[in-house]
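Hi L., both proteins are below.
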Amino acid sequence: MKTTAVILLILLVFPAFSQKITVEISGIRNEKGVVLLSVYRDNKTFEAETPFRINSFSKVGMVDGKITVTISDLEAGTYGIALIDDTNNNGRMDFRFFMPTEGFGFSNYSFKGRCKPDFELFSFNFDKIELKVNIHVQYF
């Protein structure tokens, strides 16, 4: 009986410590494929295109080009999220004449220009139990 009480207490107390990032995505053009969110920890890994984690999300439930997804189980730290609207579901960004043919976006950053941004421009500090970030998908 004591063991059950301790387990129940742990289950009641510790869910408050499950950290998550809610990502509100807007500007998606169609329901084809999936949304890929690559989570980076620093500029070096972003430049090398070696994310800490890649999450794939279905577009089921998308309304007016908007969908909300959750990334959980991240420890506190600095992160940046890069998005690909992977319409052909091949797991990567496709290009034609050096220009992306699929949508892309970055956490809390409005893309301007032709080169990918520095990590510092779309990174954020995650030191809370829950955080919300926004990504607007852009297309060329």
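That was the first. Here is the second:
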Amino acid sequence: MDDLSEQVATLSRQGLCCAQIVMKIVGLDLRQEENPDLVRAMGALCYGLHDQRSCGALTGGACSLALHAEDRAQMKMYLNDLLGWFEGEYGSTECSVILGEGSAPTSLCREIVANTVGRCLTMLDGATWES
């Protein structure tokens, strides 16, 4: 398991969900910030809004990238890139399609989170992740 996958697994074991993990690593750790209230609020996006809708890793990535965007144009560029990549990788943005209707989060979710974090870091000008 690589360092990023291990960090995702560790945060998952600590009780964080997909959207929270992406925000913690990409949105906050990369900026060397802490914001427990923001991480807690991101819990609303877990497991596709807790109803298998838009993937939490994707929405977490979108929110995290927005923190790094200098303006609306850059934010839209980030979001278009992330959406295009995500749909190309997973065939959908919906948890119910990716995991199967009614499925609980699985190890595939951790893989999707790690891949989404990696993509976001790459998009942010090759920023690197450190544990």
